[in-house]
Amino acid sequence: MSYSIGQVADKLSISPYTLRYYDKEGLLPFVDRNSAGRRRFKDNDFNFLEVIVCLKEAGVPVKQIGNFIDLCMTGDTTLQDRYDFLNEHEAKLEAKMARLQHTLDFLRWKKWYYKTALQAGTESIHYLPGTNHVDPAVHVEFNQLVADGADPKDLGNLPEGTAKA
Amino acid sequence: MSYSIGQVADKLSISPYTLRYYDKEGLLPFVDRNSAGRRRFKDNDFNFLEVIVCLKEAGVPVKQIGNFIDLCMTGDTTLQDRYDFLNEHEAKLEAKMARLQHTLDFLRWKKWYYKTALQAGTESIHYLPGTNHVDPAVHVEFNQLVADGADPKDLGNLPEGTAKA
DNA sequence: ATAGAATCTAGAGCTAACTCTAGGTCAAGT
DNA sequence: ACTTGACCTAGAGTTAGCTCTAGATTCTAT
Asked: Which nucleotides of C are covered by protein (CB under 7 A)?
């Protein structure tokens, strides 16, 4: 079984333009061509393609993905390099996910900040008396709620029937 | 207490160039200037700055962050919009983290694939007999190990003393 | 046989998010 | 007073990752 660039593009939910661009950048040295010069993807090629898609999603630059594919084409002498590459990007991805978790925590505290402001009808309930400056105690209060066992995922949610329109 | 652009840049670990760029894009309408036209950041400004940094990390485009800051400057009439904005980006970030978790799972399976190949000295142990094509049963085998309770975070790790040089 | 759709290459164009340059002002230490 | 370094603006330059155009070829279905 073989697949045209359009069929592969559909399967991967990316454009044929992008696939050709990847090819140009050296990411697809494994694809065959038919007698008319058109790309014919094989079933086995999807093993490479899913690695490419994975590394893309992990935030690895196209050039580095190209380096990895080069290693793959070279053979068993590069097994250690390929392992090291994946190991490195596993660590980077774990670090990124930890950062994103902090970002998510922050977003939830701000949601709670606006939920409570919304319920009071004004943001000024969070201000230091007589200023436009946020009282640091407000953040402390939120942290206290979380420390007391509240789920930060729920704390910022508006009660039912509060949505507008 | 007030801070120069350089001091703020240091605190946030971003360049003064980037801060001026953000200002140009309308992200910093709240910063004051001294008589010579230089930016003077106040303590309260860090409440905005940490929101900007958070949204950046969450992957929100600069223009949209600008829209949010505009809402902030407008006053209490925009509280619902600000809440909705954060709510939307919380959901997007949760979705992204779920995707990244799948990506991480995939990376770990590939690490295991190369660990086992490395231990065998050749990738061909994973091929269908007489081909260069990966046997789909290999992935099934990995999934089985995970289903049987193995930690995917550990499965792909090479035993101690195997690192090169 | 032929019209319309898909593909090809080379190369131009685009967008986001910086990043830097040039030419000038201002502030802090000696 | 003077030098050094931080700061200012406007605008040019850069990079990554596409995205599209043009002009030609090929495939598919009637």
From this structure: 6-9, 16-21, 25-27
